[in-house]
Amino acid sequence: MIARDRNWLLIFAVCVALAVVYPLFADGYQLTVIRDALIFGLFAASLDFFWGRTGILCFGHAAFFGIGGYIMALITLNDAIPFGSLLGILGAVAGAAFVAAIIGYFLFFGGIRGSYFTIVTLAMGVICQQAAVSWSSVTGGDSGLIGIPPIAFDVGGVHVDLSQDLPSYVFVAAIVAIVVLALWSISRGRWGTVLTAIQDNEVRAAALGHNAPLRLLVTFILSAAIAGLAGALYVCMAGLVAPDLSGLLLSTEVIVWVAVGGRGTLLGPVLGAIFIQRAQQTISSFNPSLWPLLLGCVFVIIVFVLPDGILSIYARLKGLFKSRRHAP
Amino acid sequence: MDFLVTTLLNALTLISILMLVGLGLAISFGLMNVTNLAHGEFVTVGAFAVYFVQSIGGSFWLGLLAAPLAGAVVGCVLEFAIIRHLYSRPVSTVLATWGVSLILQQGLELTFGLGAKPVTPPIEGTFDLFFTVYPAYRLILIAIAMLTLLGVVLLISRTSFGLDIRTVIQNREMAEGVGINTRRTYAIAFTFGAAIAGLAGGLVAPLAIVLPQMGVNYLANAFFVVIVGGVGSIGGLVAGSVFVGGLTSILNYQISPSLAQAIVLLAAIVAVRLRPNGLFNGASR
Fold this sequence. Notes:
Chain B: GO terms for molecular function: transmembrane transporter activity. Chain B: This is Urea ABC transporter permease subunit UrtB. Chain B: Belongs to the binding-protein-dependent transport system permease family. LivHM subfamily. Chain B: It comes from Mesorhizobium erdmanii. Helices cover about 75% and strands about 5% of the residues of chain A. Chain A is mainly alpha-helical. Chain A has a single domain (about 5-290), classed as Orthogonal Bundle (ABC transporter involved in vitamin B12 uptake, BtuC). Chain A has a two-stranded antiparallel sheet with strand order 1-4. In chain A, helix 2 (about 30-55) packs antiparallel against helix 10 (about 210-240), helix 2 crosses helix 12 and helix 3 packs parallel to helix 5 (about 115-135). Chain B starts with a helix and ends in a 6-residue tail after the last helix. In chain B, a hairpin with a 4-residue loop joins strand 1 (about 125-130) and strand 2 (about 135). Mean pLDDT of chain B is about 85; it is low at about 280-285. In chain B, helix 5 (about 135-160) packs across helix 6 (about 160-170) and helix 6 packs across helix 8. Chains A and B meet through helix 4, helix 5, helix 11 and helix 13 of A and helix 4, helix 9 and helix 11 of B.
């Protein structure tokens, strides 16, 4: 096991430990705040899995979050459907994956990469939000759908009911931990190595026998499916779904979470999501329109000052000390 | 018959606007390889310039002069402050220009306040076109857009600055070798594209809902124009505008605007999938 992996697992273990002891010190409200932030952290990790490994930026990832949310809402609000929560989650994941498969197929096999991909996904996000607003007979239009029940299901004779704060927190934290660990083991294994090769030089990777478009497509679908899962979880916890959930602002924010937390680290984006949301709540309480303005400034600052995220400060400091030590 | 002519003229209005907005994007995205997500804000700034001039008592035509100037100023500052430092980092350009776009949107909202801004057209009333009756202002819009495009074609094909641009686009290193200041050429070309987008914003202001967030729709559509039409030629720009603008106007008659937009997006994606080489000119990939 190389040192980098050991460090990652160590940080992961610390985060899990913090998540486990947190309920001992927090009241119900604080638990729900962290729970919702963790769901967005899962969403950020899903984007990072694609962007961090392939170097291709998806600018409409909230579309998948929103699709997952709306599917979950529609299924659980329909009393005729049994096992609403489980089927809802399945439907949300499948729906987001399906849309990603269609769009990804045309783009990746059409040779679309880089900026072109970014722009098409940007437009996809715009259209998803418009569709959510205008298709009001199904989506409830601007006001969205309310009264979505909390997740509840029976598994192996055990009744799971997430209407209380603590069980829902534990459920979300466990899912986030499992998914992040799974994504990490995929991306450090052979699959991730091939993706890195494709990112470095796609022609060469293809010449070595790797089906580059297929790899990118499957990675994109997986990323979208997890975004859909995050969306489904979120609407059940919040109890409502609105067009904002598929909107451009959320797509933008998730990019900031990943960029601030550190692209390609999977854990960084989760932490980035938690901390930036905290900052957002504080700032928005002064003046709601100040937040997008600040977000814009953060983008510019990241690009010029911290291209590798907050965590890179540590690496840079370490590099600084190392070079000092080796100096004669 | 009159239905057909009206649809055609509606399409022509949209196509004209798309061509003007797409022109600046064709320069920055297609030729300089810079993904400028703040391009839609040039349109917004142009529209707000007309609103501002009208609100302090100026005429629409004065506003229409101010619109490209406002676009040019914003574009010039953006190029100097951000884009020229990031020519070799495409993803960073995307992030930074998106940040600028957010800053401009919120800046406009903080300055001018919430809500749509009214802009009155210079002429009310309609014009009898023999087949049909059509709003006079839209005819003027089409005429101005066509004249502007003609001017740009002449500028690029007939002047020495146009020759510089064409040289830099074909081969940047060689252009530097023969003594062309490529940074300056890029900066001027970028500013020029921003000015044209500002003009488009000014022209569309009386027809559109003038909001700080109006730019993003033009941004998405203009990118489709450039992607579908292919980069590097005025012909591609026209073809892309006709494809996106024409399809949108025809669909808008039958179905809701957002569904129409979704279909146009899908059509554009399929078109790119089917003709990846014909629609993209290798240089920009």
